[in-house]
User: Fold these one by one.
Assistant:
Number 1:
Amino acid sequence: MNDRGSVRPTLGIPPRPELSVPVLSKRTATPAEPSGISEAEGKLVAYRQVVESRDELIREASAQGVSEARIAKLTGHSRNTVRSILGSAASP
């Protein structure tokens, strides 16, 4: 019994299906064009494309000798964000 007088369930009891958390599927491919999708989804696709081009610009600037601190200042992103982009492999 616990402090409230109730008995805790043992580990041998199977979980109740209605309380289980669904497993998230793996990332799906992003459509090349926002055709046949909602306006909000189209905006998200456009945003992803901007982020990918941003990452390319940051990598290019670093390759040309611009420091992480200077890139962060010019882009308005944190140094941790810049460092993360530079530390990651080429665009996913």
Number 2:
Amino acid sequence: MDIGVLTALLVAVVGVVGTLMSALLTQRAADRSRQRDLERAGEVWDRRTEARELWSCYVALNTSGRHYLAALTDLLYALGREAELPSVRKRLTAARDQHREVYAEAQMRLPERVLDHAGAVSHGLGAVYGMVRRLDDGLARPGDSSAAAHDAVESLWVQLRDMRREMRADLGVFRSDHGRRRGEQGEVGAASVTDRHSGIDPEGVEGR
């Protein structure tokens, strides 16, 4: 075979192979790029899903804590009113059970700094529950009194607000209220008897 023809043939073959290899490499690069895009999209979806689940957990914990505290308050005001006690006791039992269930799940999800607040609130609720039930049963211990229970309830409203702020900070929606509510404990103490009896957090809107 003539050397010129052979050379031309080799050049043609190399050209075809080069074209094919170039197309193959381009395809592989595109596939890798798509794979990376899919992985990034999956990571974003996972993060959003996790954030939604955490938000739901925070809402449930805040809501159950408020309901539990409201039910404790209602029982305190119902003491000595025999006609009201059965229904109030039933609501308190339901609120306590709900909070226990929500808190048990939250323990598996909450970051440590939020869990510290949630644990303190849960412990405080349990302590007030014990005192209120002893008062209801006529088995008060030294230190048990309606006034002491009311003071503990007021303190728990403050703890609930602190817990809620940690939750909001963790979710990235915290905004400083500096200068607007610097006297929060005083405000809680100044809340009306009607609000406390109905279980309404004096801070109101922030708890929703």
Number 3:
Amino acid sequence: MFSVYSLSLPLAPGLESWLQDQIPDSLRATIARRQRQSDQHLSLLAHGALRHFLAPLLGCAPHAVPVKSLEHGKPVLDLDNPDLHFSLSHSGDRVLLGIADQSIGVDIEAMRLPVRAGLVEHCSVHAERAWLKNDLDFYALWCGKEAALKHSGTGFHIPPQELWLNAHPQGGCTVQSTHPILQGLVVHSSRPAANYTAAVCLNTPFPSWTIRFLDSAQLPDSQLTDYD
């Protein structure tokens, strides 16, 4: 089972202080070092919402949810053999958050159109160009690859041309790669809002998925509803 949530700026009145209470002091200090207030609010929304949803499942306070970073920066629960996994992404003024009972990667991108010349060739392989017809297809490709790289924990330490999608991810597709950690992962993309593309990556095939959209004012009263 897995859940995917999306929230967006601006923050509801009073929510900033509530979100700060959800995260530990060290993370609060890291976020405060971001130069732009919008970046601070977006990161605060992502991490505060994550801990708000995870805390009841772990039986602890949100600020005490144990999180560590892997070698390439992927945040994971600092537990032995956890049966909870998460991934978060933010772009533009929107956050995407995934929680699952298996490894998961999510990505969201605010689309900047038209796509810069040469970027398609840099990020794709020849087999993918058969279905890359326009800029929207490119963003589906980009989000799908980034979700897979987040799932693996490598990020772009593996270049985008070293994995490829065997079909358009809007209908679901499989990742192919010479890197065993990526081979066979499954990706789905969607258009969650105007001018945004998103993708989810899991270990095995999964049905079509739904993003639950929350107004930031709803967050303190919301619960994770479909994690089993």
Number 4:
Amino acid sequence: MPATAKTAPPAAAVAKDAHWAATRERLRNRNRHTAALTICDDLDAKTALETARYALRRIQAEAADRPEDQTVKGAVVTAEQEVATAQAAFNEAAIILRFQALPRLEFEALKKAHPATEEQAEDGHDLNVETLGPELIAAASVDGMTVDDAREYLDTWSEAEAAALFNAAWNVQETSRLDLGKG
């Protein structure tokens, strides 16, 4: 049944749960999962942020041991401000790429459109990630990255960075926000 079709909730479900209509509406209005890939080429900004975070963790641990010490409390406030300043500098230098999960049927169709080559299949692969990668990255990009952009980045970035780009677009497809706890 298409997602846009509006039908009355099953009578048995309504009888069992008076809030089924509201639950059903919430389920229809869920946002697809989104993930971000942060790129920061400014080593100084990255180092300053990590150093500030480390200093904050240390002073917070000291403050936990000495809860009445006003000097330590003041040092925590100062360290928090230093983290905020370092985070702002990092954010200014960073590039954030955002990816959103595709509707399941769209993702499945995209995978089917990129079957493994004979050689890849002999190596146990189901998909041709070389052709799928740019298409998936562009389709999942919230920022409007094109297939040509994605292909360029995959071809020119280091292997680790290209893998991180592909994995950001792939992993958001496989993230579950469900909890199958005891009922």
